[in-house]
Specification:
The chain is mainly alpha-helical. The chain has 16 helices and eight strands. InterPro entries: DUF3112. It holds the Pfam family DUF3112.
Length: 473
């Protein structure tokens, strides 16, 4: 393209040899013109490009099948994890890029095939950057719900995505245009667009590192930090580590591609190719890094680790992504008939409760008027595991109110264990504290911003029939 020195375009005297003027060669070839500058990866040849591309083609086919398989599997279970679909789209661009590069190696003079191969190389990598940014956003919203869901932070990612999409369109148009013009001013403008685009790629790939580190530091040094809005499976530390390692490798490839553009251009007709433009560098800093990240995300099940409930919006709305007992990978021993409710949350579970429990001739639910969304049952001591990432469960307040001298629980006239008209239980058990015991159920209290625990024995196997002050029964 434009901007090459006379020594590079002309006789090559400074290098002790002569080579044709690339502009003259391009003009003789006709449209679309062959490139006038050397680029990362060079023009492919049968050896070594075909076998190398064949290996990457196979790996990306496997990765595409894996991510699409998980996407469909999760959709059948009612869990929409769009990033798995994005990963399939990325793998598809790499399948096309490797296939076109193989075809280009057999027809090295076909400029149109070369254009198509370069377009797919440019268009694909940005999907990995965007996916890592979504992971970063979820970590920030989990660690700092009120900051992560604030308006400035919420609109930052859509604005950045708009800039990225606009930039990639400009890059693709610029790359195609460079093969159909010999105007030096136009070629200089295309080079500026490429420099801008690759620099933007490097910045976007790097962004998750400072954002996640700032989020972790802000939580660590904040004495008044709130509980974590935990989501998905696995610890928060593992999620953060996965984001940071992925960002380091992705940014390494992006910085390499940008650095090669900032170096002085070399004529495409120059037989000497700098080592930083070599095919080895192309495959290492492009396809190798990308397939490692793609397969790592597949093996580590990002669809589980970074899953959030569909329609999550606002602080502490990720809690529905908690994996309760009985879900694949978190199976528990058989509990009994009532545990068929463990997959139901909120109004679904309370609806079944209302049909099962009768208070003095009227049917009502212990959880019908409760503000807490109860989510599942486990025979495990749930208090031991859910404090790992910083949020501390508390016994459900309804189980802490006692009637002086009677040892019973306070319940309202609707059957809710809380404030209001009173009825009494006799003989509470130690498990009724709700923090530990053989069977405990966890729920989210949006008013207090904390997890609540209640014993199943107090809701299903009541020790005595309550006496309602309203009905007189």
């Amino acid at each position: 393209m434009g901007g090459m020195s006379d020594a590079q375009q002309g006789s090559g005297q400074g290098q002790g040899q002569s080579f044709p003027d690339p502009a003259t060669v391009a003009q003789a070839h006709g449209k679309p013109y062959p490139p006038q500058e050397q680029a990362l990866g060079e023009t492919p040849s049968v050896i070594p490009d075909v076998p190398v591309c064949a290996v990457f083609l196979f790996l990306f086919l496997c990765a595409a099948a894996g991510h699409m398989g998980l996407f469909k599997f999760n959709m059948r279970r009612g869990k929409k994890f769009v990033i798995s679909g994005m990963m399939f789209g990325f793998c598809f661009t790499r399948i096309c890029a490797t296939t076109l590069r193989i075809a280009w190696s057999f027809y090295p003079r076909s400029v149109r095939v070369g254009i198509a191969a370069m377009v797919f190389v440019y268009a694909g990598i940005i999907l990995l950057f965007i996916a890592n940014l979504f992971f970063t956003q979820r970590v920030v919203r989990a660690q700092h719900p009120h900051i992560g869901w604030s308006k400035p932070f919420s609109i930052a990612l859509p604005v950045l995505l708009f800039i990225i999409i606009g930039s990639i369109i400009c890059l693709i148009v610029g790359v195609i245009l460079s093969f159909y013009t010999l105007s030096e001013s136009t070629l200089d403008a295309v080079r500026d667009i490429q420099l801008y685009g690759e620099t933007l790629y490097a910045i976007v790939a790097f962004l998750p590192i400072p954002i996640v580190l700032a989020s972790v530091a802000g939580r660590h040094f904040n004495p008044n930090r709130r509980s974590i809005d935990k989501f998905g499976t696995g610890s928060m530390r593992a999620k953060i580590l996965l984001i940071l390692i992925s960002a380091v490798f992705l940014d390494l490839g992006a910085c390499w591609r940008a650095a090669t553009l900032y170096l002085p251009p070399r004529a495409s007709t120059n037989p000497e190719t700098p080592w930083y433009f070599s095919k080895a560098c192309f495959y290492v800093f492009n396809f190798s890094i990308e397939i490692c990240v793609t397969l790592a995300w597949l093996a580590l099940r990002i669809d589980k680790r970074f899953f959030i409930p569909n329609g999550a919006k606002g602080p502490y709305s990720y809690a529905g992504g908690f994996t309760f007992a009985g879900e694949p990978g978190n199976e528990k021993i058989a509990l009994g008939n009532r545990d068929s409710m463990r997959h139901l949350t909120g109004s679904q579970a309370s609806g079944l409760n209302s049909a099962r429990v009768s208070w003095g001739g009227s049917r009502s639910s212990l959880g019908r008027a409760s503000r807490v969304s109860w989510g599942g049952i486990s025979r495990e001591d749930v208090s031991a595991g859910i404090g790992e990432d910083g949020f501390q469960p508390v016994p459900y307040g309804a189980f802490e109110e006692r009637i002086a001298g009677k040892g019973g629980f306070v319940a309202d006239e609707d059957g809710d264990l809380g404030s209001g008209a009173r009825s009494h239980y006799a003989a509470p058990t130690a498990a009724d504290v709700g923090v530990q015991g053989a069977e405990a159920e966890m729920g989210w209290d949006p008013r207090s911003g904390k997890w609540a625990l209640r014993p199943v024995s107090s809701t299903a196997n009541l020790p005595a029939r309550p006496v309602s002050t309203k009905s007189g029964i």
